[in-house]
Amino acid sequence: MDTSQLERFIEFPIDFKGQQLVERISYVLITFGFIISLFFGFALQDITYSFYAFIPFVLLSIIIVLPSYPAYNKNPTVFLKRPVSKPINIEIN
Amino acid sequence: MAMVVTSAFAIWKGLAVITNSPSPLVVVLSGSMEPAFQRGDILFLWNRETYVDVGDIVVYNAPQRSIPIVHRVVHQHVVEEPISKSKKSKTLETSKKTQYLLTKGDNNERDDLPLYGYGKNYLNREKEIIGNVKGYIPKVGYITILITENQYFKYAMFAALAISALFSQD
Amino acid sequence: MHSLAQRANTLSSIITTGVFIVMILVSILTIANPPILNNQIRFKSAKPIVSLKNTRNYGATKQKPKENAKFKFDMVADFNDLVDWNTKQVFAYVYVEIDNDDSNNNDNENADKIVIWDKIFDDKSKMYFNQKNIKSKYSLWDYSPELHGRTGTFKLGYNIQPHLGPLTFGTIDLNQTITFPEIKV
Questions:
Q1: Is residue C184 assigned to a domain?
Q2: C127 and C81 in one domain?
Q3: Structural domains of chain C, count
Q4: C63 in the same domain as C2
Q5: Which tens digit of pLDDT belongs to each residue from B39-51?
Q6: Among B120, C7, C119, C171, which is least packed, fewest CB within 10 Å?
Q7: What is the residue extent of each domain of chain A?
Q8: Are residues C108 and C133 in the same domain?
Q9: pLDDT digits (tens, 9 = 90+) for B46-70
Q10: Mean pLDDT score of chain C
């Protein structure tokens, strides 16, 4: 296992587009979860139900956001190739 | 990390000034107020009223006990007492109103007289009450109970912190 | 957001911020429309029994005995109005306000207040209370040793304990005044 593989194993990296997507998903999911669970608790007239209703949203967001899915790695950053220096031939007459 | 610690300390001291209470947030450690408060609940205290009322839940420092107690007021008396001359106070008032309180835990059979120590029948509002409970958050403070009472949890947390410090790249 | 740890950190901070906002919202809602007890409470107390006690359990010592009073009363009360979605329990207590000799003015700030009975209502379907011949749970004694001849007014206090947020308090006059009788020997 070389270092890049070790890094992948520890970090679960994702690319820049993926990071943007993940951030948006977590905001939407959590906000949505709060609204739904608050209404749920209010409808049943007990705020403790809101708490229980929010737990699935937390689990769902953990499952969706944390792992490094291939979908978050579709646009890998392409680094510029290092220019190869060639010996220059100079002719001297 | 240092920023977090210092700003938390500043907020804590700022709250103490606003609420006039030496510890504006307390974690419930005993079950004597169940079912109202359970272990690990967080309470917000306020300490700006001159007198507290019967039925209020107060936090007080009992003599010979290091941990403050959260109980409900069941007796309240406002007593006008003469100021003793020996103190040489410069004020013209000759008497001072003091509020005396008796407290009881909702879950306890009887009042707190045994907790006060022999010869002490009442708490002094000014001297012994740290604050009056105004707000409540359930369970969140349980983590402090885990840290202080469960050594394995403490070690596990230190280990997690150490590992995260080792692997973080920033 | 590059690594797993950073994503976990961001997610937990979003959740914490959300919880904080929800707590503030719920607290504002609870403060904005505090529950008020609208319906009448029916209360009737018999004449108290006053006796002389000289143990510490009754606020006294051997040298300085104190007069203690016991009560029996009937009460009908409906606490359903106090319950909303954030109510964990209602703590109801009956207390006696004893007039002070030295303060005959109308402000009752100085009146001695002593709780004689309390009950926790933590089941939302059982908020109606109707009982006869209730014995006072706690013996009544004052700061000063004497009770006989003084007058007391009954009041009902309630404390609504929320699941989250601010505690609410209220008091209702029970419209009964008694004069403490002489010591029963």
A1: no
A2: yes
A3: 2
A4: no
A5: 999 999 999 999 9
A6: B120
A7: 15-66
A8: yes
A9: 999 999 999 999 999 987 788 899 9
A10: 89
With beta carbons less than 8 A apart as the criterion, state whether C75 and C154 touch: no
Verify that C20 and C58 share a domain, yes or no.
no
Q: Are B101 and B126 in contact (CB under 8 A)?
A: no
Contact B95, B110 (CB under 8 A): no
For C24, the domain range is 1-33
Same domain, C105 and C21: no
Based on the fold, state whether residues C20 and C53 are members of the same structural domain.
no
Kindly state the helix (H) or strand (E) to which residue C139 belongs, with its residue range: none
Per DSSP, the residues of C82-122 read G--TTEEEEEEEEEEEEPPSS--SS-GGGSEEEEEEEEEE-
Judge whether C125 and C80 are in contact, CB under 8 Å: no
Q: Is B32 a catalytic residue?
A: yes
Residue C12 is classified by DSSP as H
Task: Let me know: does C73 contact C134? Beta carbons within 8 Å.
Answer: yes
Give CA angle at C129 (C93, C33), nearest 5°: 65
Facing C22 at nearest CB: one of A38, A58, A65: A38
Given the residues B32, B41, B77, B89, select the one marked as catalytic. B32
Name the one residue in this structure whose structure tokens are 């919202």. C25
For residue C161, the distance in angstroms to the closest alpha carbon of chain B comes to 7
Residue with tokens 């969140």: B140
Residues C101, C17, single domain; the answer is no
Distance between CA atoms of residues B129 and B135, nearest Å: 17
List subunits contacting chain C, requiring 3 or more Cβ pairs under 8 Å.
A, B
Domain assignment present for residue C11? The answer is yes
Q: Look at residue B86 in the predicted model and tell me its pLDDT.
A: 59
Where does residue A22 rank: exposed (0-12), middle (13-18), buried (19+ CB within 10 A)?
buried
Write down the catalytic residue from B112, B164, B168, B170.
B112
Q: What are the boundaries of each domain within chain B? A: 22-163
Residue among B97, B94, B26, B18 nearest B58 (CA)? B26
Residue C185 resides in a domain: no
B56 part of the active site: no
Check pLDDT > 80 for residue C39. Answer: no
Does residue B76 belong to the interface with chain C, where contact is any CB pair within 8 Å? yes
So what's the pLDDT on residue C59?
87
Instruction: Let me know if residue C85 belongs to a domain.
Output: yes
Q: Per-residue pLDDT averaged across C94-107, rounded?
A: 72
Residues of B in contact with C91 (CB under 8 A): 36, 55, 72, 106
ipTM of the prediction: 0.90
A42/A39 Cα distance (integer angstroms): 5
Q: Which percentage of chain B shows pLDDT scores above 70? A: 91
The CATH fold assigned to B22-163 is Umud Fragment, subunit A (2.10.109)
C48 SS3 class: coil
